[in-house]
């Protein structure tokens, strides 16, 4: 299927590895010009090299990068200094740490809200009007399955990402955007085989006095699909939401969790 987005320009945040890289890779393979943003310059350079060497990348698809912290005003200024107008924006920032809500002070909450709510909103604000004027725009926010099924130790993430979800539910449905072929959707990942998951599994293994493999196997058994997701399939879903074929999908929370969420809605 031709997604109809070859030649478009995409900004993909947190793209040096994991789910962000999966999205960047899927878009590049569709012929999209992609600019990757991440804080770690070394990992970012490695990611760019992987994409440039990808045999599935059309020769016409450019791959560029900006080493910056997208959660800061300075980082966003670096990105927009490179390019002002974007056709596709994939927002993504590392989730805040787990813990007991009793130990989180105001600073911890502000940091979580800045990264996982206000940063996507700032990127949406900076790009949607230009998208609407050109008659095409796709914004995909990588959030978390915890938005639908909150996890007690992830209160910072639950709160900040739920705030973004509520904001998107309203702005995505305005006729000025939806009527101009600009869509905004959220991708809600469950357990994916990423560095973040592996770090969590390592911590759980040390705490339980078990091997990482034991902890992973036990976790997989709680997932109906009996496995963890992989960044490639996550990226493919993101690319579809960015395609011409997804113009009638907006304001949605697309859950990708192998069937873990037990609810009907």
Automatic annotation (TrEMBL):
It holds the Pfam family adh_short_C2. It comes from the Bacteria. Belongs to the short-chain dehydrogenases/reductases (SDR) family. This is SDR family oxidoreductase. It comes from Ramlibacter lithotrophicus.
């Amino acid at each position: 299927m031709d997604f109809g987005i070859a030649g478009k320009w995409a900004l993909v945040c947190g793209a040096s590895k994991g789910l962000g890289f999966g999205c960047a890779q899927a878009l590049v393979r569709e012929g999209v010009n992609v600019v990757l943003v991440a804080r770690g310059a070394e990992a970012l350079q490695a990611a760019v090299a992987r994409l440039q060497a990808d045999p599935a990348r059309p020769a016409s698809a450019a791959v560029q990068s900006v080493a910056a912290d997208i959660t800061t005003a300075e980082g966003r200024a670096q990105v927009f200094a490179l390019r002002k107008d974007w056709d596709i924006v994939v927002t993504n920032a590392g989730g805040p740490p787990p813990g007991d809500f009793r130990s989180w002070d105001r600073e911890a909450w502000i940091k979580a809200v800045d990264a996982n709510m206000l940063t996507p909103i700032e990127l949406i604000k900076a790009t949607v009007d230009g998208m609407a004027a050109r008659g095409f725009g796709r914004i995909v926010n990588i959030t978390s399955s915890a938005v639908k099924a909150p996890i007690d130790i992830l209160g910072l993430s639950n709160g900040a990402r739920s705030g973004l979800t509520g904001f998107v539910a309203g702005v995505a449905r305005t006729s000025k955007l939806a009527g101009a072929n600009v869509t905004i959707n959220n991708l809600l990942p469950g357990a994916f085989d990423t560095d973040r998951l592996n770090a969590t599994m390592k911590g759980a293994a040390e705490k339980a006095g078990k091997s990482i493999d034991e902890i992973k196997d036990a976790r997989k058994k709680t997932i109906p699909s009996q496995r963890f997701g992989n960044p490639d399939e996550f990226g493919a879903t993101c690319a579809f939401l960015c395609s011409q074929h997804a113009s009638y999908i907006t304001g949605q929370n697309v859950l990708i969790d192998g069937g873990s969420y037990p609810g009907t809605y």
